[in-house]
Design a protein that fits this description.
12 helices; 8% strand; rod-shaped
Length: 457
Amino acid sequence: MRPRSEHCCVPLCVVSARYNSTVSFHSFPVEEDLRKKWIAQIRRDDFQVNKNTKVCSVHFRHDDFMEGARLKRLKKGVFPTLFEWNRQEQPPRLSVWERRERPLTPDPDSDVDQEDMDFDVERTGHDYCSVPEAAAVDMVLHENEELKREIEDVRKQLEQTKITHRFGLRRFAGSDEDIRFYTRFATYNHLMAFWELIEPATHRMIRVTNSKVFKEPGNTRALPAIDEFFLFLMHLALGLKQRDLGHRFQVHQTTVSRIVTTWANFLYFVLGSVCIWMPKEKVRAHLPEEFHQIRCQTPSSLLLQSEVFSNYKSHCTFKALVGMAPHGAITFVSALYAGSISDRELFKQSGIINLLTPDMAIMVDKGFLIDSLVPCKIHRPVFLTNGKQMSADEVTHTQSVARLRVHVERLIRRVKEHKLFDTVIPLSISGSINQLFTVACLLVNYQCGPLVKAWSH
């Protein structure tokens, strides 16, 4: 099949490659004098010749073609001579309803010259045995390959333009600073390493749909899975409103709400299935040097700190209990409770008591009066009562606790870097706030390096 439809430029000739794929088509010669003779022969005024202008083989005599060639090629110096206006009178054309006699097969012993017969066929009809000229075929194939390459280049440029203008993770893949800003992950490679851990489980993700029911995953994503994850991280890290995220990712606000809820539930179960509580043997093995100052009193240490989102009594607040290992990893996250709950009751309901053993030690804030609740040693800042001064031992102990509690505050600050919790929690996500908070805490173990560089060993 020809790469495109060719037509004969001779007046009154209706030969087209579309309806006669065996007729050969010949380009105008390069020699100026011969080209002018071709133009004069076909009798067209103000005629402009280009590379696509062709004359079909019907207008050339049989002896104008090279003999023995597999493809029909013209001899040098020939020009078209057979036209509608110089042909002999043709018999009237039969209608489709009239019987047409088949021509007799020539007798091999006849004196009729086969060349004259071919000439008559050439003059009275089209040469259905001819084939395209080899040079023309090669030129068309070459042009076809060039067009394919141009289309591929344009396609790549269009894809790159879409990536540049579309708000998604790939747009910021070359900037670790932007990745840190939008996701709280240290680098793009760091983020992709975490994605490789959770990506296999995304194929089994249960999605929230518009009918407020959970459905198995399918081809219903408005965004690629990795861009949905990027949207969710931006929601946590920057606290952006759902309408803002919808404009950035060019999806509806309702779609953003479903994506946030879906990923909050998904990561809550995926990350929650990883045991983060550390056995006392592993705690001792990774105990930083700073904690050896109080190790004479305790064989191991686990830091605990209450996480409070708002201190304003005019707002509803949430409280949670977060546990930290001595080397800086989060090892316990409780559910969220109403802000009115006391620290002692929060500690009691969190479930951490069942994890403590007599050979452990914990460090808590001074509001946690839990001595009768736990079986282990407690490190807590000393209270000043009745204006009495602290003893030398109490001062030393309080200074040791205060120096180590700095690392607890730094860990809490990492959680609070997720700006979603810096603002009033909207009602649209109140149903999944517990999952969002838990995921934010657990992500800290993956997003950031050690609290102190020396602890990385």
